[in-house]
Write a structure and sequence with these properties.
Thiol Ester Dehydrase, Chain A, about 140 residues, single chain, six-stranded antiparallel beta sheet, alpha+beta
Length: about 140
């Protein structure tokens, strides 16, 4: 993931490497973030698709990113719950597109939605989340060694 105005630093969260995430865009009018993910082999089960709980990670990432962008990088959501429907297998090696949308953001509660699509535009998974707003976390400064 590259530096962007919403996160404001070059150090991506450690989970970004695992998800192989890439920010694509933000649509202010619809409060929608778009991200691209390249499915890594280590995310998959012996069936050849992403393990269900890890699919939730893609959805959580893109929904969270939508809220961070909506607050111009000042806040990040902390999930209270996440509901997900797995529609199709997310295969190893696929490049998938995630969209996350801020449905409603109040001072105490945030409602988010997310979807994952394959390269042909087919729906793979969908989710909704209820979260609370928090200050955006900053990368830790860790001593060398």
């Amino acid at each position: 993931m590259t530096t962007d105005k919403y996160f404001g630093h070059e150090t991506a969260s450690p989970h970004s490497a695992l998800l192989a995430s890439e920010f694509v865009g933000w649509d202010e009018a619809t409060q929608t973030a778009t991200m691209r993910f390249t499915v890594q082999e280590q995310m998959c089960t012996w069936r050849g698709g992403v393990q269900g709980g890890l699919v939730a990670g893609y959805l959580d990432d893109v929904m969270g990113y939508a809220y961070v962008a909506a607050t111009d990088g000042k806040e990040a959501p902390l999930n209270l719950d996440l509901s997900m429907s797995l529609i199709r297998l997310v295969p190893a090696g696929a490049v998938i597109t995630g969209t996350g949308r801020v449905v409603k953001a109040g001072r105490r509660v945030i409602f988010l939605e997310g979807e994952l699509h394959d390269e042909e535009g087919r729906l793979l998974a969908r989710s909704s989340s209820t979260a609370i707003p928090t200050p955006k976390p900053q990368p830790e400064t860790r001593p060398e060694g």
